[in-house]
Structure formats: structure tokens, C-alpha cells
Specification:
Helix content is 31%, strand content 23%. By secondary structure, the protein is α/β, with parallel strands linked by helices.
Length: 449
């Protein structure tokens, strides 16, 4: 049977665009559908605007520190509308770049909703098309618990478009998005309260890192409250109110929920095509990203494997080269570095200390905490934390964790070394760049435990 397309991609986020673009470059006839915005979550309501906001929010500290370096900065004020407008302008520029990336190799773009009607047919807007292979890359969507008053709260989707900057904000959640937004708002001068239902946020990260970030956020003035369960959200004359299970209440101008993301699979027609999902609505795939329907594939957040943009891109590359270049590529999910753009930043690669101890019985731990040189001439009390985990049996460095300025930039380089199997002896033999924070990773000689 002849189909309209060799590959039809539903979702033009990072993974979907990469799969479509590279497949078209390899000679396939490709179409891609996107009903919201080219570039998906990362470009529009995720990584990119979030980091722009992080940059913007950090200038308040930069202005304060500049006085110790001889600068007289007077009468500073912040214009939220200008940041918003410039952010929107940058996102529009990126949207067009994504459009060009798709159109240049010949991929056809449908800017409308698309859903499967069977295993080879897609309803695209008001007409149907067919495809030999279909890729679902629809990403994920913020989840808000079903509490009374949930209509009064916002998510990260809306937080990038607030018409005015709130004077008081409540951030609910304990994942990286919640911690990042708490830092953003605090840096912009907003009275910020972070509520998390558990005893310590950033579950899944190294325990020392979690504790260190907690202390730094509190030092910076964020009102951090653990074991705080929101039962209800209401609106009063005082503002929006989060009522907690212990009977207390917190009042703010906005309540931002950052309580996780769920695979966005409910509206892409999986049932008519017979595609199976799990209890969290994630599409089930094998190691080649093939669903239970042989010609239908899925990648990225919608498979809920690792919700990271570079991972989705790597998965998209596998789809393109495996389907249209006859290769057998796989993504290695071990030792994937990541960063959290809280303030100070987190950078991490490899297992946590707790996990590493289950794998390496002779685990050597090296750690260091210090006040960065930049802050020694000002009143800024922010500190940096670094940790190396070493397998005592082989001397191989198996993990690096950091909290501090530009942690992600530093850990990216260490990730190459760890991926390549570098030993602690290799680290020790490396000459440091002085004076930098990064040199601490090659000068830690004494084991902490």
C-alpha cells in the first residue's frame, strides 16, 4: 500500500522536531503536526524562558555585590513587562528557527491538532492523511491535584505570562520546577513561600545536595515549609489563600503549583490505533521506542522515561537513523548529566551517594564546601558545595555533584570524564585552573568518608 508519508510525527517539541528533521534529511517524506507552539515545552514554557527568568532574577544580587567592587548603583528598579516582552520576542525568534529546521529538509508542517484514527491514519484538522510509520512525541503537561479551589491556582505554563509581577507568591511542590521558580520570584523581590508536602524537596537527588540547597534557599529569604499539605485554595479580600491541613493559611497574590508533569497522551487517538499506555498514561515502548503496534513509535516525555530535552533529542535521532538509515542506535541512559537552575544552581552526573553504596561496597566520598571568591568582598553568604564519589575497587570516579554558580557548565565537562571512565588518579593528575571553583574537583585529596 502507498501511504501519503513515510513518517508522520505528532508533536513538534525537541524530540519530534529532531526525528522529523533528520528523517527528512535522510530522504524520507515527512510531516509533523503541532497544535500549540513549535519547539514544545522546552522552548516555549520550559527550559529556555525559565533560564532567561533565572538570569533576570539574579541581577538583584549582582547589583548588591557590585558595591564591594567600587560600583555605585543607585535607584535600581525592575520592569516585569520589559522582561516579559523581551522573553516573548526571543521565543518567537526560536519558533521561527524551528520552522526553518523543519522546512529546509522538506518536512511538511501542520499547525493543528492531530490524532490517530487507526494504525496508519491520522486525522489532521479537518482531513485525514496516512503514513507508513507514525511517531508520537506529544510531551507532558503540568498536573494539579484535585483539591477544592484548584481553579484559583496557576501552573508553570501560566507563570511565564503573568500580566504583572505578584508581590507575594506561594509555590507548591518539591521538584526542580518548584525550587527553580521559588528562586526566580525571590530574586525578583517577590515575597516567596515554598510549600512541600514531604520532609525534604528534590527527591531523587543526592541527600547532601538537597540539604545544602534547602539551607541556601532559606539563607536567601525564601519561606520554606516542609510537611505542608494544601487542602484548599480560596480567594478572599486579602488575596489567594492556601489552607493547610494543620489549619494554618498562607496568603499571596498568586499560587503556583509545580507538583509534577503527566504524559500528554489522552488526545492523540491511541485507543483507536490500539496503542497501550501504563497507569500514568505513559505510552509503553520497547528499547527501540516501538509501541505494541509495530509501525507506531513514541519518544520523549510521553513515554515518561527521562523528562529531559537532550534525552528526547537523542531518542529522536535513534528513530530517524534506525528507520531510514538502517542503523541500530540505542540511547545509553547511564550517567546522564543534568542541572537544576535554582539559585545557586545544581549540577549532577552519576548516582547519588545512597544509590552508589548499593553498587560499590568500597565507596570513597570526597566533598568540599566553601564561599566562592567573588562573594568574599561582599556580604553575600552563599556557599558552594561539591562531591565526588569514587569506586575504591577500581579508583573510577562514578559521580560528581555540585551546588554553586554555573554548576551545570562545570558538570558538563566532568560528565565527559566520567563517561570515559576517568579515575580519581586522573582527576588528581589534572592541573586546576586557578582561581576557579571548578579547580576544587581536581584538588580534593582527603576523603570525607
Amino acid at each position: 500500500m502507498k501511504y501519503d508519508y513515510d513518517l508522520f510525527v505528532i508533536g513538534a517539541g525537541s524530540g519530534g522536531v529532531r526525528a522529523a528533521r533528520m528523517s527528512a534529511n535522510l530522504g524520507a517524506k515527512v510531516a509533523i503536526a503541532e497544535e500549540r507552539y513549535l519547539g514544545g515545552t522546552c522552548v516555549n514554557v520550559g527550559c529556555i524562558p525559565k533560564k532567561l527568568f533565572v538570569y533576570g532574577s539574579h541581577f538583584s544580587e549582582d547589583f548588591d555585590e557590585s558595591a564591594a567592587y567600587g560600583w555605585n548603583v543607585h535607584d535600581t528598579d525592575f520592569d516585569w513587562s520589559k522582561l516579559l516582552a523581551n522573553k516573548n520576542k526571543e521565543i518567537s525568534r526560536l519558533n521561527e528557527i524551528y520552522r526553518n529546521l523543519l522546512e529546509s529538509p522538506g518536512a511538511e508542517i501542520f499547525e493543528t491538532h492531530a490524532a490517530l484514527t487507526d494504525d496508519h491514519t491520522i486525522q489532521v484538522g479537518d482531513h485525514q492523511v496516512t503514513a507508513d510509520k507514525i511517531l508520537v512525541a506529544t510531551g507532558s503537561w503540568p498536573v494539579v491535584p484535585d483539591i477544592p479551589g484548584r481553579e484559583h491556582v496557576q501552573t508553570s505554563n501560566e507563570a511565564f505570562f503573568f500580566e504583572s509581577l505578584p508581590e507575594r507568591v506561594i509555590v507548591v511542590g518539591g521538584g526542580y520546577i518548584a525550587v527553580e521558580f521559588a528562586g526566580i520570584y525571590q530574586g525578583l523581590g517577590v515575597e516567596t513561600t515554598l510549600l512541600y508536602r514531604g520532609p525534604l524537596f528534590l527527591r531523587g537527588f543526592d541527600e547532601s545536595v538537597r540539604e545544602f540547597v534547602r539551607d541556601q534557599l532559606i539563607e536567601k529569604g525564601v519561606d520554606v515549609r516542609f510537611n505542608a499539605i494544601v487542602d484548599k485554595a480560596t480567594i478572599t479580600t486579602d488575596g489567594k489563600v492556601a489552607r493547610l491541613s494543620d489549619g494554618s493559611r498562607v496568603v499571596a497574590d498568586e499560587i503556583l503549583y509545580a507538583t509534577g508533569r503527566r504524559p500528554l497522551s489522552s488526545s492523540c487517538g491511541l485507543s483507536p490505533a490500539g496503542v497501550q499506555t501504563d497507569a500514568r498514561a505513559a505510552i509503553r515502548v520497547n528499547s527501540d521506542y516501538r509501541t505494541n503496534v509495530p509501525n507506531i513509535y513514541a519518544i520523549g516525555d510521553v513515554i515518561d522515561r527521562m523528562q529531559l530535552t537532550p534525552v528526547a533529542i537523542a531518542e529522536g535521532m535513534c528513530i530517524a537513523y534506525n528507520l531510514f538509515a538502517g542503523e541500530s542506535r540505542k540511547v545509553n541512559y547511564n550517567d546522564i548529566p543534568t542541572s537544576v537552575f535554582c539559585q545557586p544552581n545544581i549540577g549532577t552526573v552519576g548516582p547519588t551517594e545512597a544509590v552508589a553504596r548499593t553498587t560499590y561496597p568500597d565507596l570513597h566520598v570526597y566533598e568540599s564546601s566553601f564561599r566562592p571568591l567573588k562573594y568574599t568582598m561582599s556580604d553575600n553568604q552563599e556557599r558552594t558545595y561539591m562531591k565526588l564519589l569514587v569506586d575504591g575497587g577500581s579508583d573510577r570516579v562514578v559521580a560528581a555533584h555540585m551546588v554553586g554558580p554555573e554548576a551545570g557548565e562545570i558538570i558538563q565537562g566532568l560528565a565527559v570524564a566520567i563517561k570515559a571512565g576517568a579515575t580519581k588518579e586522573d582527576f588528581d593528575a589534572t592541573i586546576g585552573i586557578h582561581p576557579t571553583a571548578a579547580e576544587e574537583f581536581v584538588t580534593m585529596r582527603d576523603r570525607a568518608r
